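Chapter review: from sequence to fold.
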Amino acid sequence: PEVTEKLEEVVMTWIKQIRQVLVESEQMRREADDIGPSAELEHWKARMSSFNSLLDEIKSSRVKKIISVLQAARSKTLKQWKELDCNITIAANEAKDNVRYLYTLDKFFCLLAKASPVTMVEHVPSLMNTVCMIYCTSPYYNTSERMTSLLLKITNQMINTCKTYLCEG
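The token string follows.
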């Protein structure tokens, strides 16, 4: 019982830490008003990396041994642990999926940053078709909130490129 109690304390500490990571990942991001779409890809890459690291830690032999002992002891903390494990897996899958979809837009991000206003217009239909494809097929990125954020960043990039063109021209 003493060992089980100590292990439960350890697991409860992990649960608190993991909940904090999950809560922070869902909080609104504070971003500059003129931030471009590449920042969206960078955000999801960082999030994917952090959740993958967390998953690797959870799947480590040390953690598995502790969970096995608690399973044998029929610990009640395992219910919370399994729920969090599931939530982390979902968050990691979401980040991985969003990175995969945003990479399909990456070539457009470079074009928007380097194009003149005239040549930029040529890329807009393909860009919008790709955004539409993401909206229609992504299981995670198809919310109005995510799309609004992405389209705002694309618009910001177009405006920044036009400003640069005007100032240099």
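Two observations follow directly from the output. Residues 1-168 form one domain. The chain has one domain: 1-168.
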